[in-house]
Amino acid sequence: MSFIKITVGGMTCEHCKSAVEKALGELAGISSVKVDLAAKQAVIEYDEQVVKPAAIKQAVEDLGYDVTGI
Length: 70
Known about the structure:
This protein is α+β, with helices and mostly antiparallel strands and 70 residues long. It has a single domain (2-68), classed as Alpha-Beta Plaits. The protein contains two helices and four strands.
């Protein structure tokens, strides 16, 4: 398992946090997602053999947020 920390720009509320957690949690190969709304960051534990960082970034960007750190 690998970990990645990303910065998610545009999150403003608990709904935003939940949407990011849900979208990432639905990706195959993701075992845990912890989103810190105040810090606008997410820490994701994932299986690098199943999902790549680019797919993680795309899943969050598809929600309309900006992603940095990948």
